[in-house]
Amino acid sequence: MSTETPVQAPLASARVRTLLRATVPALIIGAMCGALLWAIDEAAHGVTVFMWELVPEWTGVDPEARWWPIVVLGLAGLAVGIIIRYIPGHGGYDSATTELVAPPLPLKVLPGIALALIVSLGAGVSLGPESPIISIAVGLSMWGMTRIMPQISHGPVLLMAGAGMIGAMFGSPVAAALLLTELVAGVKLGGLLWDRLFAPVAAAASGALVANLLGVAFRPQEIGDYAGPHWTDLTIGIPIALAAAAGSLLGAWLMPRVWHLLRRFPNPIVFTTIGGIVLGLLGAIGGPLTLFKGAEQTGELISRAGEFSFWALLGMALIKVLALTVSAASGFRGGRIFPAVFIGAAFGLAGHSLVPDSSLALAIAAGSLGSILAIGRDGWLALFMGVALIGDIAILPVLCIIILPVWLLVTSAPAMLVHNGTVPPNAGHQPPPEPEITPSQATA
């Protein structure tokens, strides 16, 4: 027998109709996000082939020469600086000052963001696509939805576009649902939480499906040697996670200092070029594995882990921390999560080399959890990536315990973010939103 009152039944039906009306635009936005991720990835790959294969072939240069990364990344810094200085919108938000999802920017800003991102990714800068590509997805979605469905408000479109791109990048709508739960729960709008998550999750599922079909979504390593969970896992996992978090916090401490040091040069062409040269020097020291965003390099590092000593693995982890810090602080456009995965995997492999009889999957998952929590400051994302990286859900109970002491370490430490940065001038007809504005404020 139904317990619904005569008033409750129409309200429930209206809520269902509202959710269904949001489903179609959510699926369209998600599919667009998957295709956009593929297009950016293909363009960046073209830059990689040009700078790291074709130019050396045409000039007779050895691309494995120690000095070649300095040339490539120095030129990349020059190019990104020119984009920031002269292209309308000035490359969008400064990545050192921007959270994962930022308020929308006008359509005319988006080409400059895309160019700066493609050059950064393709040349080998230690940043992922996250923040800039979400800005592009949000901008395109806002522009399109205001023409197709002018009655829809900006807040839901921002959430759908952000979720669609997160789902596409991480290959799963679960990542978007976890990340947006905290964001949506913090906005006082009333109603059920899953009513507000319904359309974003639909967009994330669509984005993940398209990205997986196009082969650009994040894929797990599926190591498969984890036999737990067991309490003894904590004696291995907690020290590795704490070490990875502590090493990553070095970058958080350095970020604002490097940012302010480089901004003593008012011209972005100068500070991005300096940053590119420093990145090239770090790449020359750390080797090719410490370049680029880190997703493919993480898989290669895991497969070749036996070739490296403890000190070599620890060195690569710390060099990647420095490279990530310099990349973001010197004006390159990109996100911090994928480099954090590489950092955590390197710390995990270093720890495993000291205790080779322990689970490799546990070491890698614990290391990635520690670095992502320190750099990204999101427990849900850290847990998701710890599981997704190794492809074994059985490790989740142990990670839920490992994360507790790590959170105690990072919660009082500085975030890898510059809070008093600037936004690009003249990014639109209205004054552009300050980068410290949170997504919850943008959707409130």
Descriptors:
444 residues; mainly alpha; 68% helix; 0% strand; globular
Secondary structure topology:
Layout: H1 8-59, H2 68-86, H3 110-123, H4 130-148, H5 154-170, H6 173-185, H7 193-214, H8 233-262, H9 268-286, H10 295-303, H11 310-329, H12 337-354, H13 360-376, H14 379-390, H15 396-410, H16 439-443
Helix pairs in contact: 1-3, 1-4, 1-5, 1-7, 2-3, 2-9, 3-4, 4-5, 5-6, 5-7, 6-7, 6-14, 8-11, 8-12, 8-13, 8-15, 9-11, 10-12, 11-12, 12-13, 13-14, 13-15, 14-15
Give a nutshell description of this structure.
With 444 residues, the chain is mainly alpha-helical.
Describe, in plain words, how this protein is organized in 3D.
This protein is mostly helical and 444 residues long. The chain is built from 16 helices and no strands. It has helices at residues 8-59, 68-86, 110-123, 130-148, 154-170, 173-185, 193-214, 233-262, 268-286, 295-303, 310-329, 337-354, 360-376, 379-390, 396-410, 439-443.
* Unreliable sequence segments: 421-444
Enumerate how many helices there are, as a single number: 16
Number of strands: 0
Oligomer: single chain
Helix content: 55-70%
Mean pLDDT, rounded to whole units? 84
- Counting helices, strands and paired strands, the structural category is mainly alpha
How much is the radius of gyration in Å?
22 Å
Q: What is the CA-CA span between the terminal residues?
A: 39 Å
Order of helices and strands: HHHHHHHHHHHHHHHH
Q: What amount of the residues lies in strands? A: under 5%
Broad shape? globular
Query: Largest sheet at a glance?
Result: none
